[in-house]
Design a protein that fits this description.
The protein has about 200 residues and is mainly β. The strands form four sheets. The protein has a four-stranded antiparallel beta sheet, with no helix packed on it. The protein is extended, with a radius of gyration of 22 Å. It starts with about 20 loop residues before the first strand and ends with a strand.
């Protein structure tokens, strides 16, 4: 086995206690203090080092790394509009390796608190040790979610790497009509050599 904090090898049952702090997503403001290195996780009022520390928006178990944060927008979002989407990279004890979603309460002054909405949008089974989703992007025109998956394991045959980009969309979304505007929106009569750009779904 290995020590989860240092990575050093140790005999089963003899590893030192892992005291690593939980993973966090924070609402970052100018001059904000988030606890590192003396007050990580939920601020403890009894710890002088926690004075003025902003509490995290949400937390995850130690070593379960949130790798991207985005917000669900676009015509497919529906009842999930503006929910916060978070990818978790590692799968520990059956947790992680998925695309979670949260609603936020609060404001930019006092900060935000996240409440998880179940089920997650997608759950990615483990292919190789430590592989998982690392980034997300929302198509601004049609609302499709694109998710990148990274496989850090070494493969002698390069084609065995599991580097994927997934497109996540609602059933029937391919039937959405053209959305993007024409640019420029208007052309003066008699104009010469005008280029018009159209933004479509593909």
């Amino acid at each position: 086995a290995t020590d989860g904090g240092s990575g050093e090898f140790c005999l089963s049952g003899s590893c030192p206690e892992d005291t690593s702090p939980p993973e966090e997503v924070n609402w970052v403001v100018q001059n904000g203090h988030y606890g590192f290195p003396s007050c990580e996780g939920t601020p403890n009022p009894g710890n002088p080092a926690c004075a003025g520390v902003r509490a995290p928006t949400t937390q995850f178990p130690r070593h379960l790394t949130p790798t991207s944060v985005t917000f669900y927008t676009g015509p497919q979002a529906g009842e999930s509009k503006n929910q916060m989407l978070v990818t978790l990279f590692k799968r520990l004890g059956g947790v992680g390796g998925n695309l979670k979603r949260f609603t936020l309460t609060g404001d930019a002054t006092i900060g935000f608190q996240a409440t998880e909405i179940l089920p997650p949008i997608a759950d990615f089974g483990l292919i190789d040790p430590g592989d998982g989703p690392v980034d997300t992007a929302i198509d601004p025109i049609n609302g499709d979610i694109y998710l990148a998956r990274f496989d850090p394991a070494h493969h002698f045959i390069q084609s065995e790497h599991h580097h994927y980009i997934y497109r996540i969309h609602r059933v029937g979304s391919d039937a959405l009509t053209f959305i993007g505007p024409a640019k420029p929106a208007a052309v003066r009569a008699g104009s010469q050599g005008v280029t018009i750009s159209l933004f479509g779904r593909r």
